[in-house]
Amino acid sequence: MYAITIPEPGGPEALVWDQVPDPVPGEGEVLVEVVAGAVNRADILQRQGFYNPPPGASPHPGLECSGRIVALGPGVSGWTVGDEVCALLSGGGYAEKVAVPAGQLLPVPEGVDLRQAAALPEVTCTVWSNVFMIAHLRPGETLLVHGGSSGIGTMAIQLAKAVGARVAVTAGTEEKLRRCAELGADVLINYREQDFVAEIKQATDGAGADVILDNMGAKYLERNVQSLAVNGRLAIIGMQGGVKGELNIGALLSKRAAISATSLRARSLDEKAAIVAAVREHVWPLIATGQVRPVVDRELPMSDAAAAHRVVEESGHVGKVLLVTP
Description:
- This protein has 326 residues and is an alpha/beta fold.
- It has helices at 41-47, 121-134, 151-162, 174-183, 196-203, 221-227, 249-254, 269-282, 284-288, 305-314, and strands spanning 2-5, 16-19, 29-38, 64-72, 84-88, 97-101, 105-107, 142-146, 166-171, 187-190, 209-214, 228-236, 258-261, 296-301, 320-324.
- Helices cover 29% and strands 26% of the residues.
- The longest helix is centred in the middle third of the chain and has 14 residues, at 121-134.
- The relative contact order is 0.16.
């Protein structure tokens, strides 16, 4: 088969479409013929040499895909050859075929195109596990989403609104904020021109955000704590703004607040399967009824993954950038 390889870490040109051995499904795995994959920030880190796959995972980038099951490994039940699926991966989505643990498979939701289903697994699992399973966002609470126009952000807006929360977002252009508003965002903050701490305080009558979903890490740590409400929860899922920050424990204590930091890729098979099962139970019905939908910025040939990485690195997109197999 063909897959994107990374002979040497580097810029987008380091991604090479090349022939590699076909994967073989092991115990509890299925083989999926990939129709589409999606670009995530973690793929860029892997390309640069900063985020290696966990032991035993495919060396090829790609944390999600959609496609059709073409073979079942030993011990698999509940799935059949020919099923159209999307999947959460530890790697290997930038390829024509990938072996997937059966617990990380999801059926393509009703009403969603097979290719566009590739935009769903990583964002739904990330948002549901962090915002709802860990931070326990409740109806009537306020969620602040940094990077509201990203793949994660566009899904967080929709899911929070679907459960009856109020949503504030940050983004860097008026066009991105407009797109966030179309998805249901209530409070729009241009981080280039406005102080999100002041804006979220004003929008909540001084109370602050009950939950913050943060992709920036160190750069926003102090201001995120300032923005939290009493009993607020800060969920950190990225480090685009650095890895080391100073934390005012006194401020955290005064608000009885909590901070969590998670990633999906290195979790155990059982943990991932539990998250995928929760997403299937809680999120898939919302997609089937049209309350929540995948947001896709564009589709590019998988062989031209370098162009897709440039798009994501330039941050000019809204939602997900997909890679489509030949």
